[in-house]
TrEMBL record:
CDD domains: ASCH_ASC-1_like (cd06554). InterPro entries: PUA-like_sf (IPR015947), TRIP4-like (IPR039128). It comes from the Eukaryota. This is Uncharacterized protein. It comes from Pectinophora gossypiella.
Length: 137
């Protein structure tokens, strides 16, 4: 859901960023609070939230288009969803159909080459299937 991801630190990274879940199971109160927040931010959208939040795995990827300091973010996105010191502006979220186990690390890190290769193959296969479905009409 989040297209604007808040962080306390800046990054110069632009392009694909793989997203991994933490090993710690999510707190149900936090989940309810975040779902309520997104319903308030996007009242016109029919949001569907996950019923299960996998842990300790690679979830998918996004494209990082920019990383803005909060002042600039507020000018470009008044009332935006993040109040963090820095905000990643993300696009093209892609969820993996297979969940690869990973040990997440703090900040941005190099993904294991074997996991990266498998995840890329998964995305390529998903793109082929989607293209075939579009072609079949």
């Amino acid at each position: 859901i989040s297209r604007h991801e808040g962080r306390t630190w800046y990054t110069s990274h632009r392009g694909r960023l793989w997203i991994a879940s933490t090993v710690k199971p999510p707190d149900q109160d936090v989940i309810r609070s975040l779902e309520a927040q997104y319903r308030a931010i996007y009242p016109d959208k029919n949001l569907v939230f996950p019923t299960f939040y996998p842990t300790g795995c690679l979830l998918g990827c996004v494209n990082v288009d920019d990383c803005l300091p909060q002042e600039e973010y507020q000018k470009l996105y008044p009332g935006g969803e993040s109040d963090s010191p820095y905000v990643f502006i993300c696009s093209n979220p892609t969820s993996l159909k297979l969940r690869f186990p990973v040990k997440g690390q703090h900040k941005i890190y190099q993904l294991d080459k074997t996991i990266h290769k498998a995840a890329m193959k998964c995305i390529q296969n998903m793109a082929k299937i989607q293209a075939e479905q579009v072609k079949a009409g």
